[in-house]
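User: Hello, can you help with two protein structures?

Assistant: Certainly.
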Amino acid sequence: MTDNTKRVISWMLAIVFSLVIFGSSCFIITHADHDCIGDDCSVCMELSECHKTLNTLGTAFMCSANLAVMMFISFMIASCFTTTRSDHATLISLKVELLN
């Protein structure tokens, strides 16, 4: 697999997870005050599943986001301390004049 393919797959998974979380949230918001018919209420069962989905995926999504932010911050801190000098210096790169 190439890097572009991996990147596309990861973005697609992130979008799917975001849509599932958004869809579950919207369903809970729109059906929070429904007319319940009793023990076998299908809306109540769906609300329960949406709550489980949000607890599971929401936690995983937030952990992944926190990990990505921490990695970005550590990369930025590490890049502040590293230099961009070449490993080998030549007379030309040091701008030494050879006038003899």
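That covers the first. Now for the second protein you mentioned:
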Amino acid sequence: MEEKKIGADAGDIRQEKEREENGKRYVERKRWLFLGLPFTFTKYTVTDEVITINDGFLSTKENDCYMYKVQDVELLTSLGERLFKLGTVACYTGDNTHPQLYLQHIRNAKEIKDYILKASEEARRRRRTLNTLNIDAADLDEIDD
């Protein structure tokens, strides 16, 4: 059975299938901390190219961050999250709109964090992108005066 998308042509569907075959794809839902039930309207999708956060029910918002922009990844687990085998993955990015992305209360958080860390490094290598540190060069101009 072939999956069809509304508004997508055959080339888009073929490219997405190739991406899924070549790399991993994680789709997780944000869960309530109480019993770890997925009764929220937030869905996280992590592929080797992009991290996507879909949020909302009536009014929806989609946020994407390219994997090569992820600079650091952190796993946060509270006591409540550990009880229900959940975790929060914090991604520190070079993205202008969301410099910090949080994948909150998700299952398989450690596995997803490790995957994002490796995939972001691989994405930077493929794009030949250098990760730089902002040291506030504007402050150096004031010292020279």
